[in-house]
Design a protein that fits this description.
Helix content: 25-40%
CATH architecture of the largest domain: 3-Layer(aba) Sandwich
Shape: globular
Distance between the termini: 83 Å
Strand content: 15-25%
Radius of gyration: 24 Å
CATH class of the largest domain: Alpha Beta
Largest sheet: 6 strands, mixed
Strand order of the largest sheet: 10-9-8-11-13-12
CATH topology of the largest domain: Rossmann fold
Order of helices and strands: HEEEEEEEEHEHEHEHEEHHHHH
Structural class: alpha/beta
């Protein structure tokens, strides 16, 4: 039995601008509108206009509604929306027809975050939300016979933690001589995750990825600067909607282009959320993502003698036994340990009292060591 059609909403023309330069009315269903969203947004304000944030800036956001784009603002006391959010827009009586007021944000189904970068150690400081309500996290890496394994592992963990499906996008595959080695290394670093070779230059993989997003799925592209996220977005759209720059002649890598997060609708349905390049993929407190990203270690851990085994030398550790007999890759355990350390450090930083106590303890250890040197 087919689902009942969602009735069209009456959009007050005073609340939204004309539908862009294309002359066509946007179809919100192609960017994910449907399912629970109409009811959720109606519960916030039954008279408001429904829309999705396609770009969030400091103090304002651009929202796509059924009648076009509208610039939305909010009060300083309101938690700002992020790109990908579904929101309610209300008319702004003091602004023109292309402006509105934020009426509310629907509860997010998925949320990709990273630790706040301000360096404050406060339990009241929430993580930074990079993107909301995405179905797929495309971990974008350049095809390389020696990939940055640690970065790839962190990207997969971030994807799992968000609640979305991870997908490794191996870009610029046309530039690597031994693509089989590049693919195999990426698969070793992302066990259980599909690795898709893709090249906007030759078109390889572009149509396959586009088909996965239609008719209404959203992918967020996560990766360092210069890996080709904006170029890939343009290839999926079929025209240049995002600015790109030529690759450097020295190393063949792209230059940083994107400076904000932007959601771009695809002609055949679906959407791509392009993000600025992240120098580091910082991890907060990791819960389910670590077990999903390291399934072989999680399975082995079930055979450890102690339920809280840390795999650092405890007796009866099945993980260390597998390491000794060669059935577990030592590099995988090293990656697991680094992410565990990052997660524990994030938890410690969130607990101010515990952080200060640990700092004092390490301070005493350092002073004792320095004292021994002087003897």
């Amino acid at each position: 039995m087919s689902e009942p059609a969602i009735p069209e909403r009456a959009i007050p023309r005073s609340a939204v601008p004309p539908a862009g330069n294309t002359g066509s009315t946007p179809d919100l269903s192609t960017v994910g509108y449907g399912g629970p969203w109409p009811a959720l947004l109606d519960s916030i304000d039954p008279d408001g206009v429904h829309g999705r944030v396609v770009r969030a800036d400091r103090g304002a956001a651009t929202v796509l509604t059924a009648a076009g784009h509208v610039r939305v603002t909010w009060t300083p006391a309101t938690a700002p929306p992020v790109t990908g959010d579904w929101v309610v827009v209300r008319p702004d009586p003091y602004a023109g027809p292309d402006h509105g007021l934020l009426g509310g944000v629907a509860t997010r189904t998925t949320s990709m975050t990273r630790p706040n970068t301000h360096g404050q150690r406060s339990s009241n400081e929430a993580d930074q939300v990079l993107a909301a309500n995405v179905d797929i996290v495309g971990v974008v890496v350049v095809a390389d016979e020696e990939p940055n394994v640690r970065r790839l592992e962190r990207g997969v963990v971030m994807a799992y933690e968000s609640g979305a499906q991870p997908l490794v996008l191996l870009t610029k595959v046309d530039l690597v001589e031994r693509r089989d080695i590049a693919i195999a290394r990426a698969e070793q670093a992302a066990i259980g995750v599909e690795v898709m070779p893709i090249s906007p230059l030759t078109g390889e993989g572009v149509e396959e990825l586009r088909a996965r997003l239609a008719p209404d799925r959203t992918i967020v592209l996560l990766g360092a600067s210069g890996v080709g996220k904006s170029t890939l977005t343009n290839a999926l759209v079929g025209e240049e909607v995002l600015v790109t720059q030529d690759v450097r002649a020295v190393d063949g890598k792209g230059r940083h282009t994107t400076t904000h997060r932007e959601l771009v609708a695809l002609p055949g349905g679906g959407a791509v959320l392009d993000t600025p390049g992240l120098r580091t993929l910082g991890l907060g407190v990791v819960e389910d993502g670590m077990a999903a990203a390291f399934p072989e270690i999680e399975e082995l851990a079930g055979g450890c003698r102690f339920g809280d085994c840390r795999h650092d030398g405890e007796p009866g550790c099945a993980v260390l036994t597998a390491l000794d007999d060669g059935t577990l890759d030592p590099d995988r355990l090293e990656g697991w340990r680094r992410i565990r350390a990052a997660s524990e450090n994030a938890a410690l930083r969130a607990d101010t009292a515990a952080y200060r106590q640990t700092a004092r303890s390490w301070g005493r250890i350092y002073r004792d060591a320095q004292s021994l040197k002087r003897r």
